[in-house]
Amino acid sequence: MRPTSSRESVPTMTPAASLVFTTLLSHGPLTRAEVARRTSLSAAAVTKAVRPLMELGYLVEGVDEDAPPAVGRPANLVWVDGGRALFIGLKVTGDEIIAVLADLCCRIRMSRHVHLTGREPEVVLPAITALVQELLTEAVGFGVRVRGLGIAISGDVDRAEGVVRYSPFLEWRDVPLAELTAAATGLPVTVDNDVRALTVAEHWFGAGVGLSHFALVTVGAGIGCGLVVHGRVVSGAHGVAGEIGHLSLDPLGPPCHCGNRGCVEAIAADPAIVRAVRAATGKQVTDTAEALDLAHREDPGARAVYARAGEAIGRAIGSLVNLLGPERVIISGEGLAAYDLFAEGIRDAFAASAFGTAARCDVVIRPLPFEEWARGAAATAIQSFMGSDTYEEQSMTLHSRGP
């Protein structure tokens, strides 16, 4: 391993520096004056925050050569040097691992998919290690170090401890994933719930940029929800904030794996839809593709199942909007393949359940490939590296809603 030079030092981040960095990451290049306006920091505080990051090469300042001619001296712009560091992001499902190598601006430089032969930790962990080693080898060609590894996984994940408390699709309980993976790879590791990780990426780079309050609802194998409140991704005191998938809508409804009945997930997640279509049609439907095909061929039983799923999702979003009042709800996930079947149910149930002006919430559809989930994992690694996760835990007031 080559020695670490001063140019390769890890920055010591203050809350102000973290705020400036994430603002430039989402909105840059910006002038220092614009950074101050967006962050509500003084000009002196911005200069103090920017200086060490520029000395270490994470931020760059220069004149915008493409700007139109203007009277007087052109203002310098500051931006994040994406090529200054690399990060690995992994999305672990019950069947495969999706991996990306991303730069400091979270742009995907390469991606990999690896099929899993089993779901036990003793099968998944060696697969993770081998995949990380492959990407570390590929990263050599970029000439900069991989500074962190982010892992996104479904279920109850304690990010602070790096422990997967419970992952229903992997059937894991209390797996110290960060500790085990760090020991195997030699990298700093951040482990987070997959929907929260995707929410980080949407907050920084996607449909949530510039918003202080929004929610990301994912439909597919499960029903997930990530929340941004006062400009930060929140997980709650016990790490399970936003679990609308386990909002019980019908106490007499179908049983859910969580132990309750009538949960949104027990009605609208892919496995629940397959079971319901099988029961409604009497046909041996084995997967979502077959269920979708039946519904698209106008089978009334199958279409009724999707209509009920849409209603459940719409009611859950209505409850979410009533409680938190977000500016936008983003709907994503692999389940959007059936959106044409449950869109009307979502709209009608949301309109019926949203109270008063909450119904003005902007609901947008945003299909995203699994590489974006892995990119979200890389974003959590960038958060940890730049100290932004610590900052977001402490602050709820400094983020601006600049356009």
TrEMBL record:
This is ROK family protein. Gene3D superfamilies: 3.30.420.40, Winged helix-like DNA-binding domain superfamily/Winged helix DNA-binding domain (1.10.10.10). Residues 13-62 form the HTH marR-type domain. PANTHER family: BIFUNCTIONAL UDP-N-ACETYLGLUCOSAMINE 2-EPIMERASE_N-ACETYLMANNOSAMINE KINASE, ROK (REPRESSOR, ORF, KINASE) FAMILY. It comes from Streptomyces olivaceoviridis. It comes from the Bacteria. InterPro entries: ATPase_NBD, HTH_MarR-typ, ROK, ROK_cs, WH-like_DNA-bd_sf, WH_DNA-bd_sf. Belongs to the ROK (NagC/XylR) family.
